[in-house]
Design brief:
alpha+beta, disordered C terminus, eight-stranded mixed beta sheet, 26 strands, 8 helices, 413 residues
Length: 413
C-alpha cells in the first residue's frame, strides 16, 4: 500500500489516546482514509502496552466524576473485545483521607455511580475480612467499594481498539516517525504532518502520544513555561509545562487464583493508603513512618499478582529526560530492589497470604515514564487553531494535594 498523502484527521500515537480518538471519530468521518493514525513503532508499543490497565472512578476532582463514569460505560460496552474484567475497585484509607474519600462517595452517589462506603475501623476490618479472612491492615477507617470498574488486559484492549478502528475505515500506519509540521502561510494552523516517509496534508491533527507529548509540543513551538495558580490563588510564573514521573510497578509470580476471595471469586482491584508504620517482611526493619500506598490485583495477563506503589517525580528538567528507549528497555528508568522490598512488605502488611512472597517477585513489563501537566490534571484542548492534544494523568486523587500527598518510599522523591 502506498504511503497516504492526504487525510481529514491525522492522529499521532497508536496507544489508548490515539486509537480511542480514532475509533470515536470514525463515527463521524466515514470515508476510508479520512482518519490516519501514525505510530513510530506499533500499536500498544508504548505506555499503553505496559499499563496496569486499572479502570476506576476514584479521583478527588469533581470534574472527573462523570467523565470517568462514561469511560467505565465504554469498557462495559464490549468487555469480551476489551478483555475487560469488571471486578470493581476498593479504595482503602486511613482517617487522614476520610473526608476526601467521603466526598468522592457523595459525588458518585449523586450521578448514580454504584458504590458502597464503609466507615469506622471496626466496620472496615469486618468488611475486608468478609472478603479475605487473612486481612490484617491496621488503622483503616474508610473503605470505598466501587462496584463498577476493574481492569483490562493492556495490549489486548489496544489491539481491539485498532481492530474496531480499522473496521470503520481508519488507516493505521506503523513504523513512521513524525518529524515536524507544515504550517499555513497566513495562520498558525497546521496544514500537513511531516514524517519520515513524506508529508500528509490534513485538516486537523490530534496528538495522543502519551509520554512523548512534549516532543510534539516542542515541534509545534508551544511554550515550555507557563503561569499557574495554586490552591491559595497565588500565581506562579515560569512554571514548567511538563513534568515526568516514573510509575513503579511489579509482579508476584504466583498463580492469580492465589488472590481469590473467600467465596472463590476474583477480587476487586485493591488500593490501600496507610499512615501505619510499614515494616519489612524480610527482616522486620522500619521501611517508612510516612504515608504510603499500594495497589494490586490478580492478573492472568501478567501471570501473577500485579500492582505498584506511588510514582516518583523525576527531578530533572523535562528537556533532559530521555524517554527512549522506553519501559523495560530503558537503561535509566527501572523499578528497583527498594521498590520490590517496599511493595512486597506492604502486601504482607495487608494480607497474611503474602508473607514471605518477596522471593517470587519479578519485574514485569509494566510501569515506565509518564509526562504530566503541572497540576497532574488531564488536558483535552486545542492549540495552533486545529491541533488537539490529549494528555492524561496516572496520579491518584490525593497525590495532587501537596499538603498530604506521598511521593514514593525510601528516598525516592
Amino acid at each position: 500500500m502506498s504511503f497516504p498523502k492526504k487525510a481529514k484527521v491525522v492522529i499521532v500515537g497508536g496507544g489508548i489516546h490515539g486509537l480511542s480518538t480514532a475509533w470515536k471519530l470514525s463515527e463521524t468521518y466515514k470515508n476510508p482514509g479520512d482518519i490516519i493514525v501514525l505510530d513510530k513503532e506499533d500499536t500498544a508499543a508504548g505506555a499503553s502496552g505496559i499499563a496496569c490497565g486499572v479502570v476506576r472512578n476514584n479521583y478527588f476532582q469533581p470534574a472527573m466524576r462523570e467523565l470517568m463514569a462514561h469511560s467505565v460505560s465504554v469498557w462495559e460496552s464490549d468487555p469480551k473485545a476489551w478483555k475487560y474484567n469488571a471486578v470493581g475497585y476498593l479504595q482503602i484509607s486511613p482517617e487522614v483521607m476520610h473526608e476526601d474519600v467521603a466526598s468522592i462517595y457523595e459525588q458518585q452517589k449523586a450521578i448514580g455511580y454504584e458504590s458502597e462506603f464503609i466507615e469506622g475501623e471496626k466496620d472496615c476490618t469486618k468488611y475486608m475480612k468478609g472478603m479475605f479472612d487473612d486481612w490484617q491492615a491496621q488503622g483503616i477507617t474508610s473503605v470505598l467499594h466501587e462496584k463498577k470498574g476493574g481492569y483490562a488486559f493492556n495490549k489486548d484492549s489496544i489491539k481491539a481498539l485498532e481492530k474496531k478502528s480499522l473496521n470503520n475505515g481508519v488507516n493505521v500506519v506503523k513504523g513512521v516517525k513524525v518529524t515536524g509540521f507544515k504550517r499555513g502561510s497566513n495562520s498558525k494552523a497546521v496544514t500537513g504532518v511531516v514524517t519520515s516517509k513524506g508529508t500528509i496534508e490534513c485538516e486537523q491533527v490530534v496528538i495522543g502520544a502519551g509520554p512523548w507529548v512534549k516532543t510534539f509540543w516542542d515541534k509545534l513551538e508551544l511554550p515550555n513555561k507557563i503561569s499557574i495558580k495554586d490552591q491559595k490563588g497565588v500565581t506562579h510564573k515560569d512554571y514548567p509545562m511538563w513534568i515526568y514521573w516514573f510509575l513503579t510497578e511489579g509482579v508476584l509470580g504466583v498463580d492469580p487464583n492465589f488472590q481469590k476471595t473467600d467465596d472463590g471469586k476474583m477480587p476487586p482491584v485493591i488500593h490501600v493508603d496507610s499512615d501505619a508504620h510499614l515494616f519489612s517482611d524480610v527482616d522486620g526493619s522500619l521501611i517508612t513512618d510516612k504515608m504510603w500506598g499500594i495497589y494490586y490485583k490478580p492478573d492472568f495477563n501478567f501471570n501473577g499478582v500485579q500492582g505498584g506503589a506511588a510514582p516518583y517525580k523525576v527531578n530533572k528538567p523535562a528537556e533532559n529526560v530521555k524517554v527512549d528507549p522506553y519501559g523495560i528497555d530503558s537503561p535509566e528508568y527501572q523499578t528497583t530492589d527498594e521498590f520490590a522490598h517496599m511493595w512486597c512488605s506492604a502486601l504482607a502488611h495487608c494480607q497474611k497470604r503474602f508473607q514471605g512472597k518477596i522471593k517470587v517477585y519479578h519485574k514485569g513489563p509494566s510501569g515506565g515514564l509518564g509526562c504530566f501537566t503541572p497540576d497532574s490534571f488531564p488536558v483535552f484542548d486545542r492549540f495552533c487553531e486545529n491541533v488537539y492534544s490529549v494528555s492524561y494523568t496516572h496520579l491518584r486523587a490525593h497525590e495532587t494535594r501537596e499538603d498530604r500527598g506521598w511521593r514514593g518510599v525510601g528516598g525516592k522523591k
